[in-house]
Amino acid sequence: LQEAISKSTFVFVNADEFVEFPRPITHKIVYVGGIAVDKPKPLEKELKKVMDAAIGGAVLISFGSIAESKKMTPTIKTAFVHMMRSFPQLTHPNMKAFVSHGGMNSLTESIRAGVPIVCIPLFGDQMRNAKMVEKRNVAVLLDKQNLTADALVWALKTVLIDDRLISAPHQLHSARIDNE
């Protein structure tokens, strides 16, 4: 691999240079973060109707396409149910927060949308990704091993009211646009 890279004209990295940890790079490195992220499509009629009728904001909870919710422990499932009871008005056309596993594409989409994140990494690169966005004040990081309803409520309240977490995704997205 090292030999192939050394002979390559460019090395494309699917990461956002404004989110990545600082590190030395050569002129061969080309960041293409978000290359796999499709342009947003209009919501389906039924979902749009629900979102338009909402009044308090919306929080999207997604753990990607690989993690199976049926494999979550009963404690974790219960924590999510109790957390949602603490926020009875979370639907609105404007997405207010994103609870995610910390997959790179999910984080990129959230930053591009200007939405703060609650990261609960499950495996692989997700812990590193979550640490990167936490360092950039775009996310709050929770440990899946110690997940409780109180921790979820605290994290969601934090991303919904902390001005740094609300403005940082917009600032990162603006920095990307200014440099394109």
UniProtKB/TrEMBL annotation:
Keywords: Glycosyltransferase, Transferase
Superkingdom of source: Eukaryota
Reaction catalysis annotation: glucuronate acceptor + UDP-alpha-D-glucuronate = acceptor beta-D-glucuronoside + UDP + H(+)
InterPro entries to which the protein is assigned, alphabetical: UDP-glycosyltransferase, UDP_glucos_trans
EC identifiers of the protein: 2.4.1.17
Manganese in keyword set: no
Pfam families: UDPGT
EC category name: transferase
GO molecular function: glucuronosyltransferase activity
Similarity annotation: Belongs to the UDP-glycosyltransferase family.
Protein name (database record): glucuronosyltransferase
Taxonomic source organism: Parascaris equorum
